[in-house]
Design goal:
25% strand, D-Maltodextrin-Binding Protein, domain 2, binds calcium ion, binds D-MYO-inositol-1-phosphate, Fructose-1,6-Bisphosphatase, Chain A, domain 1, seven-stranded mixed beta sheet, 2 domains
């Protein structure tokens, strides 16, 4: 149940939707066209559109809620300790965006008193607008979505991702991947953790695991998943927190079995 009044929740939700749609327009307009790309790490890109998208979202939130805190990927903004915390990934799937692969999304989550209340993940290229308000279910555009009913790991299609330090670090998910792929129907690497979570929420994937994620990768998507009936934990099975780096997210029905496979490696 949401701790917000219906009116407040709706106003905040409309702000999140409006900001995601504005930013999404920018992504759509520049998709497939030349972009300026620079690198934050060896293989970790940021484009001029990431920055424009971020600026657009911040401007909209600030114009309505100047006292709220904002955590966002490309800019370090000092937090004041507000009970309201917006968590933004201006483009989740920047490598895809740089290569014109259409798995890209704007992700906006809102925490109130430490509880996720609103999550919006928008892929403007594919026209997928995923959204959830705590206690009200999860939706893709106007249709309510639910996790899949599959109970068998062997019949499950999973998603995962690999960290940007894959070349330098041994903790790069390859040993988990190598083990898990032999026990399931398939594993996909879409390149956007936010969409991975939404595709679990809508029943495309039965599960998703990843390590070394950031708050903005999972905030909106994890609410969308749980509102669709899914389940998220750490690798050791504790309740998932967006402030932790690892996630195991499933339809709930294969959760224990997937945790067991992960434990085989740790
Ligand atoms: C990345 C994507 C990717 C995941 C990486 C993230 P970015 O976010 O979500 O799927 O594997 O760990 O950092 O850099 O595109 O915002
Ligand atoms: Ca991201
Ligand atoms: Ca990003």
């Amino acid at each position: 149940m949401s701790i917000l009044s219906q009116t407040e929740n709706e106003k905040l939700f409309q702000t999140a939707c409006g900001a995601a749609k504005q930013a999404g327009m920018l992504l759509k307009e520049s998709f497939g066209k030349h972009k300026e790309i620079s690198f934050k790490g060896r293989i970790d890109p940021v484009t001029n559109v990431d920055l424009q998208s971020e600026e657009t979202i911040i401007k909209i939130i600030r114009s309505r809620y100047p006292e709220h805190d904002i955590i966002t990927e490309e800019t370090d903004i000092e937090v004041s300790g507000s009970a309201y915390r917006w968590i933004i990934d201006p483009i989740d799937g920047t490598v895809n965006f740089a290569h014109d692969l259409p798995f890209v999304a704007v992700s906006i989550g809102l925490e109130v008193h430490g509880e996720l209340e609103i999550g919006v993940v928008y892929n403007p290229v594919l026209g997928e607008f995923f959204h959830a308000q705590k206690g009200k279910g999860a939706f893709l555009n106007d249709t309510q979505i639910f996790v899949s009913e599959t109970v068998s790991l062997e019949k499950s299609l999973l998603a995962t991702g690999f960290p940007y330090d894959i070349q330098e670090s041994k903790n790069n998910n390859l040993s988990y991947f190598n083990h898990i792929i032999k026990h399931v129907q398939g594993v996909r690497r879409i390149g956007s953790a936010a969409l991975d979570l939404c595709y679990c929420a809508s029943g495309i994937f039965e599960g998703f695991w990843e390590l070394k994620l950031s708050t903005w990768d999972t905030a909106a998507g994890s609410l969308i998943l749980t509102e669709a009936g899914g389940f998220a934990t750490s690798f050791s099975g504790e309740k998932f927190s967006i402030y932790e780096k690892e996630i195991v997210a499933t339809n709930g029905k294969i959760h224990k079995d997937l945790l067991k496979l992960l434990r085989d490696i740790t």
